[in-house]
Amino acid sequence: MAIDTSGEWWVGSDASDIQDYLAALTRSDGGYPSTSYKPLRCDCGASRFMLERSGDVARRTCAMCGTSKFVCRESEDWEEAEAEEGVEQYACVECGTKEANLTVGFAGYDDPKSDGIKWLFVGVRCVQCGVLSCFSDGKVGWGPAQDVIKGA
User: Fold this and answer.
1) Which residues are within 8 A (CB) of 21 and not within 5 positions of it... i.e. 6 or more apart?
2) Whole-structure pTM over 0.90, yes or no?
3) Could you give the CA distance from residue 65 to residue 121 in angstroms, rounded to a whole number?
4) Residues of the chain with pLDDT under 70
């Protein structure tokens, strides 16, 4: 649980480092800071996924059982984005590995009376070399927050 920031890329020693990475990333770029997080696991118990995106829609596929799910989106969102923008698969920028641990970061609204999620970030940690990055992000704009988080 230590992030090495000495090289070109931030490198995490554990999947839990994704949360710290997303927190630092979203605080530093002047956007929407993430304040809640959900590490992703498949129903089979695995925590290694292949990941692809189309626009701001991400789809994860379990490396163990092959189950695919959208991250806080519906298949209609994917179909529309795919038709307009095509599909990009995750591959680590350092070693090219296609499997990663995933954590979703959520940015809520500034108004404490608003129980929704404004933005989400799909953070990844390469399972081979540990490089951390944010592979996908996008507007959510609905709630209640717990329903959005469950959809990850």
Assistant:
1) 3, 10, 12, 123, 125, 132, 133, 134
2) yes
3) 24
4) 1, 29
